[in-house]
Design brief:
The protein has about 230 residues and is α/β, with parallel strands linked by helices. It has 2 domains: about 5-140, NADH Oxidase, CATH 3.40.109; about 150-230, NADH Oxidase. The protein has helices spanning about 5-10, 25-40, 85-105, 150-155, 170-175, 210-225, and strands at about 45, 70-75, 105-110, 130-140, 155-160, 190-195, 200-205, 230. The two termini are about 30 Å apart. This is Nitroreductase.
Length: about 230
Amino acid sequence: MNLLEAMEERHAVRDYTDEPLTADQIAALEAAIGEANAAHGLDIQLIHDVPDAFGGCPTHYGRFRNVRNLIALIGRDTTNGGKNGLDERAGHAGELLALTAVTLGLDTSWVVLHETDAHDGRWTLGEGGRMPAAIVLGHGTRPGRAHRSKPAEELAAVEQGSYAESPAWFRHGIEAVMLAPSALGKQPFRFTLLADGHTVKAEALEGVQAEIGLGIAKLHFELAAADADFVWA
């Protein structure tokens, strides 16, 4: 399974078995985490095969059971505020890791935890570090279900012409964005193809964890439009 196929297959799973991760799965995840940390300036950490990988921290939304593995998306806020800030970088890097986990035969779910500075030693928060979200992973007791999605016309805009007449790579990107998970399934983001025909403006809208969702959606768009000559505004 490749990453594009993993987008189609990945659905949130919140109930897990005791089956441990294999040595190969751990090695592959650690390698992917190392690349993500280097690319995004993050301090992502893998917690695996422990009782209560949440370390006692309450969840923002959703009931989870028997979570023994977690990717803690940790980093520092940047000085330039929201643009490519920690939440967006965590969303982008985290979704790549979630899709990688799916290609390794694992189930996943996004989760936001509270009180992450009190976590029974499950992860390390360095000075100035923050954990805006995490990825649960393991072997689900049952398959996840597809989440709802906004239609393409609500997620996309085109400065010249219509969405139906836009380049195929842009429409492929938006189709991948439609598969992007987001808090409460609200998908608070929009992608606009600018008048020059190769610049895309991606922006977060009002909504819960909108910047995290934007990072996730941008990763989906990039993977689907990888062969196109486009740039971010």
